[in-house]
């Protein structure tokens, strides 16, 4: 089982000729071709690889969708990072779902800002803006209501597009269902076990209803500024009721998470969505038939207030989420100070706000033609977006500075620890090996920096949350340049340049994600770095945001469980080997296997982030109870290989260092095995260079892996009848 590197079946099996024996083009099982001369497996042993790399995305179009849906994915992941305390589940889930709803509202407001505010309200009345734009000038001279109704079709189309993207043609979930018997009480074992589509469908209906209601409210507030009529008030009340119902449903997890066979709630959410669509049609018709008089102003009436109110709501939700997480955090050393969900949610919101601000700014810059930067910022987008870009560049620069300080301040300690490890591993290294020893020390020191990312993540999350809070200052009519010049003496032009620079930085980030997303599934180097984000984020089912990318574990885990059960029940013994994130998939799979299957399987993991990352980031799902249950399921025929040069993987139960007073006892103490990387620092007689530093990428042909595999195969033979096949 490969990790997030997306290796091919031939690469996983280290063979040139492979054949698919189960699955389809997106994910499946591969074996060596019978006539392949490279197959060196022992007699009675059959190698088989499961390739899931194309399940998270696979095609360029789907990868690009992930890029733009990245904020939705992050907020969805935050839901799964809740504390292990059962009392926090409903509250954290409700808060994350409300934050997810604010992202949908922000998405609509950004598109409405472009269509209604920039184009409909500011550009169409301006002959300078319409000059030379025949594709837009045909709307000029029409009544304001008709203009706004026509340009409002763009947000309607945007809502329909994201609705369509999130509602892909379905597959038969039962085709990938795992055996229902023997499922333990571990929450990790439930990942991929249920059909998530009913919940996603309910969330989708709620978010679509809220999206249309947001568009309606934006239009109705602008209409009310010129004098509210009975129809306007009625439609506004109806819109408010729709939004209140959406919020109420999301705040009741026991209700919305009901079983799939409860169709009453499905009918309620679909009815709510239908009512929202009908109200939208009525609102647009009201614009066409309403009074012709509209109050003139700099921006669309009520739009900037709505935008600032949304940012204030997001800030309040983040604060409440932080308080809840701190109250329910575990005693002792809690990773991310118990604020993992807050950090990821704040990062997702910050990214979504930056996306929205950049969209509005780029369109405003296009419509303003050659207007100077300072004048364009003052007269173009709402001031809230100006504060967003200022907050983004402020958080980015501050995090870069702090990261540099952390690197400098921790370098000596990391190098000291690395030197001690190198001295222990290579006690008799000759003097000529000193350059190689230095390279190994640097690799270990870099690998140990992973733990130092914790305070950086918390720091950036706090700054990202502060960004949404400061946007409300725009309601006072102030720009960042005015406040900084008045209070700090910083020239206004310097601040304006910084804001313009920040806008282009956001554009560069988006462009970089797009390019990385395209190449992530075409070249291995991009896949190893950029593809990690997609694979890890889409592992968790959609439980907060229905517009997040689909979850591949809903297929991969049950499909693996079915295949393993089939092999065992036909008389085979199975050795499961998983690298990196593949070990996480196998862990969830083992917890879904029937009890009788566990007697004939063994588990070999290497480069596994189960404890180092997942147990810290997802304590409610990957904890000591779940890890010990995995060991019991396989009869403790489990070996985990790890090295100090690995920046991602690590030990699961014990590092086995000396002295190690915290080491565990019992069979769990025999799971972790540290191997020396590289195996030597001296060039062997058969080569011209010293052995490579593997880091996270231990090869299946390396001696530590082959020795552990041989041992587990032997233990399988002692426990069960001689297997006909091992995977």
Automatic annotation (TrEMBL):
Spans traversing the lipid bilayer: 60-78, 98-116, 144-163, 203-222, 228-250, 271-288, 308-327, 339-364, 384-409, 453-477, 497-521
Superkingdom assignment: Bacteria
Name of protein: Integral membrane protein
InterPro entries per the UniProt record, alphabetical: AB_hydrolase_fold
Region (Disordered): 676-700
Annotated source species: Micromonospora taraxaci
Keywords, ordered alphabetically: Membrane, Transmembrane, Transmembrane helix
């Amino acid at each position: 089982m490969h990790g997030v590197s997306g290796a091919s079946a031939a690469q996983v099996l280290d063979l040139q000729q492979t054949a698919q024996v189960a699955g389809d083009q997106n994910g499946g099982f591969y074996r060596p071709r019978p006539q392949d001369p490279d197959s060196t497996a022992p007699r009675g042993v059959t190698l088989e690889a499961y390739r899931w790399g194309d399940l998270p995305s696979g095609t360029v179009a789907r990868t690009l969708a992930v890029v733009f849906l990245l904020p939705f994915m992050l907020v969805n992941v935050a839901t799964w990072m809740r504390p292990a305390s059962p009392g926090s589940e409903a509250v954290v889930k409700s808060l994350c779902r409300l934050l997810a709803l604010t992202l949908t509202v922000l998405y609509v407001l950004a598109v409405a800002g472009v269509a209604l505010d920039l184009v409909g309200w500011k550009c169409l009345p301006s002959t300078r803006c319409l000059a030379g734009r025949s594709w837009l000038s045909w709307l000029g001279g029409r009544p304001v209501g008709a203009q706004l109704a026509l340009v409002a079709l763009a947000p309607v189309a945007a809502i329909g597009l994201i609705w369509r993207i999130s509602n892909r043609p379905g597959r038969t979930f039962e085709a990938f269902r795992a055996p229902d018997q023997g499922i333990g009480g571990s929450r990790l074992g439930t990942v991929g076990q249920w059909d998530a589509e009913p919940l996603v469908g309910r969330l989708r209906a709620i978010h679509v209803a809220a999206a249309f209601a947001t568009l309606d409210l934006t239009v109705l507030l602008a209409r009310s500024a010129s004098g509210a009529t009975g129809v306007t008030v009625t439609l506004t009340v109806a819109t408010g009721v729709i939004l209140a119902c959406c919020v109420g449903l999301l705040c009741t997890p026991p209700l919305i998470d009901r079983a799939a066979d409860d169709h009453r709630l499905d009918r309620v959410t679909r009815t709510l969505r239908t009512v929202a669509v009908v109200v939208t049609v009525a609102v647009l018709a009201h614009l066409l038939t309403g009074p012709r008089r509209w109050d003139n102003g700099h921006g669309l009436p009520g739009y900037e207030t709505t935008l600032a109110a949304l940012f204030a709501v997001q800030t309040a939700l983040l604060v409440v989420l932080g308080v809840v997480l701190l109250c329910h955090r575990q005693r002792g050393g809690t990773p991310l100070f118990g604020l993992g969900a807050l950090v990821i949610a704040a990062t997702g919101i910050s990214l979504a706000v930056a996306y929205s601000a950049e969209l509005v700014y780029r369109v405003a810059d296009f419509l303003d033609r050659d207007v100077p930067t300072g004048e364009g910022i003052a007269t173009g987008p709402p001031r809230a977006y100006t504060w967003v870009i200022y907050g983004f560049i402020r958080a980015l620069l501050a995090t870069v500075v702090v990261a540099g300080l952390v690197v400098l301040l921790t370098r000596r300690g990391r190098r000291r620890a690395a030197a001690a490890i190198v001295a222990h591993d290579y006690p008799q290294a000759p003097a000529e090996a000193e350059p190689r020893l230095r390279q190994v020390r640097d690799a270990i020191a870099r690998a140990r920096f992973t733990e130092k990312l914790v305070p950086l993540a918390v720091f950036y999350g706090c700054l990202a949350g502060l960004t949404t809070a400061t946007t409300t200052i725009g309601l006072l009519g102030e720009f960042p340049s005015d406040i900084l010049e008045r209070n700090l003496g910083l020239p206004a032009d310097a601040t304006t340049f910084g804001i313009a620079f920040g806008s282009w930085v956001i554009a560069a980030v988006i462009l970089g994600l797009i390019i990385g997303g395209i190449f992530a599934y075409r070249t291995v180097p991009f896949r190893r770095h950029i593809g990690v984000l997609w694979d890890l984020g889409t592992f968790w089912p959609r439980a907060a945001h229905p517009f997040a990318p689909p979850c591949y574990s809903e297929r991969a885990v049950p499909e693996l469980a079915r295949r393993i059960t089939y092999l065992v029940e036909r008389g085979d013994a199975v050795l499961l080997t998983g690298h990196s994130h593949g070990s996480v998939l196998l862990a969830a799979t083992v917890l879904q296997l029937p009890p009788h299957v566990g007697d004939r399987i063994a588990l070999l993991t290497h480069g596994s982030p189960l404890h180092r990352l997942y147990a810290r980031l997802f304590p409610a799902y990957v904890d000591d109870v779940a890890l010990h249950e995995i060991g019991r399921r396989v009869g403790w025929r489990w070996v985990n290989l790890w090295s100090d040069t690995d920046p991602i993987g690590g030990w699961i139960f014990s590092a086995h260092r000396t002295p190690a007073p915290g080491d565990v006892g019992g069979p769990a103490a025999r799971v972790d095995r540290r191997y020396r990387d590289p195996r030597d620092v001296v060039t062997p007689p058969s080569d011209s260079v010293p052995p490579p530093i593997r880091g996270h990428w231990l090869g299946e042909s390396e001696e530590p892996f082959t020795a552990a595999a041989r041992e587990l195969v032997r233990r399988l033979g002692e426990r069960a009848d001689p297997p006909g096949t091992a995977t």
